[in-house]
Design a protein that fits this description.
alpha/beta; 9-stranded mixed beta sheet
Length: about 400
């Protein structure tokens, strides 16, 4: 492997204006890593790499985790280093290996899709990573065997492919704008079914997936819907074997910027520091999901014991150009739903949960409501819960619902 140093140039304004009105500035060169390359017999080409080593790598004698960045570039490497520095008190220093692209569509696609006629060679690219790149990195540098794979957009699709075909290759997976195309749905569902027949292969994996609800490349939210369904599938099939989180962002376009920071935080956040909070959080989340499932199925008998007596339900829906509100008690709400309740599903993509003293919980749930498989509205659900005799119950439930208009 042959390497040369790379620099990131930052223009910093140091002293302001001089007497003549000219701006005094200085170019500061900051070393973020070096270029390297490896010849691949599998791909039959040389692959260029950008490699970053921890600041104290040469003096510490320590071994480090390795972060493998797909779509490797100087800017991507710099952003990853910047986010990791912000998480210095949580995430360890890492060796970062950014893999530059040669033929992105060929390498990232495991199957032919619209706009990607192939031939797809994701299997070969993953084989290159497994059999050539990783052994070379772990022979050359002091690594501790912990590997993280991060991809975005098309390489986010590849990250999911790697998870389903080689779950033991990496300890953690981060996917930005992850998901697959509509015509690839059957392929990935079949791949998932085969993968989940060996649940033990996923033991201890940490998986963080993120999408944007304002992604111009997923305007009809088909990819979001498929990943929300996949999220429910992976959690139901693998359960406590894995740590899994799917997050959506409302205020970002394609490849939401906070996704990598949030993903690393999720991977390294210590569960040992807050065991009671995690236990309560899990119970609260389970109750919310049970309620949404019961409401969607019209299972009124299951709903009633979830609420405290005289609990309230309210909502605000945007219809015919204006916001319409309602408030009622749980008793009146259930009575009104007795006749021909409509069926729907409401998968939650992101939770915000706050537990106070283990007795009071506040929940914000970001969800899309679907009827007959079609996205109908973007719902923001809010719940207040109390613990009664050791059991969480709803004190109030409220929501906003805004129609999704497919153009």
């Amino acid at each position: 492997m042959k390497n040369t140093y790379i620099n990131c140039l930052l223009l910093l304004i140091l002293l302001g204006w001089s007497k003549s009105g000219s701006l005094l500035a200085q170019d500061i060169s900051i070393k973020i890593g070096f270029q390297d390359s490896i010849h691949s017999e599998i791909l039959r080409e040389n692959r260029k790499l950008l490699i970053h080593l921890p600041v104290d790598y040469h003096s510490s004698g320590q071994s480090y985790p390795v972060l493998y960045l797909l779509d490797g570039s100087e800017s991507g490497l710099f952003n990853a280093i910047s986010d990791l520095r912000k998480l210095y008190d949580l995430a360890p220093e890492m060796v970062i290996v950014a893999i530059r692209n040669t033929d992105r569509s060929r390498d990232m696609m495991p199957v032919v899709a619209k706009g990607y006629p192939g031939p797809p060679r994701a299997e070969d690219f993953l084989s290159f990573i497994e059999k050539e790149l990783i052994p070379s990195i772990e022979k050359t540098y002091r690594t501790n065997g912990q590997r993280i794979l991060k991809g975005q957009s098309l390489s986010g699709l590849f990250t999911l492919y790697a998870l389903l075909t080689k779950p033991t290759l990496f300890e953690a997976y981060i996917g930005h704008s992850a998901g697959w195309f509509e015509e690839s749905n059957a392929y990935f569902l079949d791949l998932s079914e085969k993968a989940f027949q060996k649940p033990g292969d996923f033991e201890g994996r940490k998986i963080f997936m993120a999408n944007s609800l304002n992604d111009p490349y997923d305007a009809d939210r088909v990819i979001h819907k498929q990943l929300a369904d996949f999220s429910e599938l992976i959690k139901s099939r693998l359960g406590e074997r894995i740590s899994y989180k799917y997050v959506t962002y409302a205020d970002y376009g394609h490849v939401p910027y906070p996704g990598f920071y949030d993903g690393v935080r999720f991977i390294f956040e210590s569960e040992e520091t807050r065991p009671a909070a995690e236990s309560d959080e899990s119970a609260v989340k389970k109750l919310v999901e049970s309620f949404l499932t019961a409401v969607g199925n019209g299972d009124l008998e299951a709903i009633e014991p979830m609420f405290l007596p005289r609990a309230t339900i309210g909502g605000v829906s945007f219809r015919e150009g204006k916001w319409n509100t309602f408030t009622t008690t749980i008793e009146d709400y259930l009575s009104s739903k007795n006749e021909n309740p409509s069926r729907f599903t409401e998968p939650v993509s992101n939770y915000t949960i706050h537990i106070s003293e283990g007795q009071l919980a506040f929940v914000k749930a970001d969800a899309i409501l679907y009827r007959e498989g079609k996205a109908q509205s973007h719902n923001m659900d809010y719940f207040t819960l109390l613990k009664e005799n050791g059991t969480w119950k709803f004190l109030s439930a409220a929501y906003t619902a805004k129609p999704i208009i497919i153009k």
